């Protein structure tokens, strides 16, 4: 049974999300503040995490940063703040999705299902291109045998580009393919993830491939394998 951590200081919201999640067959654990959420996460295994941004003790951004230091588990941020800055902030620190209040519990469950579907292994057991190796079933990335820690969304983005190397993907197409047709964000989400992905990959030297910007179109993966 898949397990979900629900962290929010609003008991009514927690009760609603817990009820809907359990009705869909998920096992749930709840936390009322950021410190409790992080403590529970460090002790138990979860398949997804729902984090409210405005929590006491530690806010959702801080909890997400701490989770990303040790895990690539899908994180969905829930907040009443819908400004672009907050959305970009959440995505920059590694959140997989960003849900703005008020929302329907059914929508949240749909977002969770979409994230978990993308966790299913696809393609080859190992994908190699020059110094780069991808392991889809483990969601692991290596450059010259050295592991590079990526979030699930970053791995999916890199994997899609590598498996379609030489093909230019528009931002809209990447958004629809990896985030879904019902995603409410805009194409800046793609640029944010590409920027973060490049920064992580650049920590290990490689000159035989790169993620290329195709001006007026989007992005592609290329190089000599």
UniProtKB/TrEMBL annotation:
It comes from the Bacteria. The keyword Transmembrane helix does not apply. Residues 3-116 form the Response regulatory domain. Residues 124-223 bind DNA. Keywords: DNA-binding, Phosphoprotein, Transcription, Transcription regulation, Two-component regulatory system. It holds the Pfam family Response_reg. GO terms for molecular function: phosphorelay response regulator activity; transcription cis-regulatory region binding. PROSITE patterns: OMPR_PHOB (PS51755), RESPONSE_REGULATORY (PS50110). The keyword Phosphoprotein applies. The modification 4-aspartylphosphate is found at residue 52. CDD domains: REC_OmpR (cd17574), trans_reg_C (cd00383). InterPro entries: CheY-like_superfamily, OmpR/PhoB-type_DNA-bd, Sig_transdc_resp-reg_receiver, WalR-like, WH-like_DNA-bd_sf. GO terms for biological process: regulation of DNA-templated transcription. GO terms for cellular component: cytosol; protein-DNA complex. Residues 124-223 form the OmpR/PhoB-type domain. This is DNA-binding response regulator, OmpR family, contains REC and winged-helix (WHTH) domain. It comes from Schwartzia succinivorans DSM 10502. The lineage of its organism: Bacteria, Bacillati, Bacillota, Negativicutes, Selenomonadales.
């Amino acid at each position: 049974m898949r397990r979900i951590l629900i962290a929010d200081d609003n008991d009514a919201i927690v009760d609603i999300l817990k009820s809907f999640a359990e009705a869909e067959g998920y096992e749930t654990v709840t936390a009322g503040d950021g410190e409790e959420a992080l403590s529970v996460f460090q002790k138990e295994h979860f398949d997804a995490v729902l984090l409210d941004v405005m929590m006491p003790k530690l806010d959702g951004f801080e909890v997400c940063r701490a989770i990303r230091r040790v895990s690539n588990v899908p994180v969905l941020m829930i907040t009443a703040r819908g400004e672009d800055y907050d959305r970009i902030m959440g995505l920059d620190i590694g959140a997989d999705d960003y849900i703005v209040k008020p929302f329907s519990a059914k929508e949240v469950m749909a977002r969770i299902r979409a994230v978990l579907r993308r966790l299913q292994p696809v393609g080859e057991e190992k994908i190699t291109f020059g110094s780069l190796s991808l392991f889809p079933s483990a969601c692991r990335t290596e450059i010259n045998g050295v592991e590079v820690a990526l979030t699930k969304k970053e791995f999916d983005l890199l994997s899609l580009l590598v498996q379609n190397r030489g093909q230019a993907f528009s931002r809209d197409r990447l958004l629809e393919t990896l985030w879904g047709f019902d995603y409410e964000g805009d194409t800046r989400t793609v640029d944010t993830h590409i920027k973060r992905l490049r920064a992580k990959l650049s920590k290990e030297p490689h000159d035989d491939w790169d993620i290329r910007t195709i001006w007026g179109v989007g992005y592609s993966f290329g190089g000599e394998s």
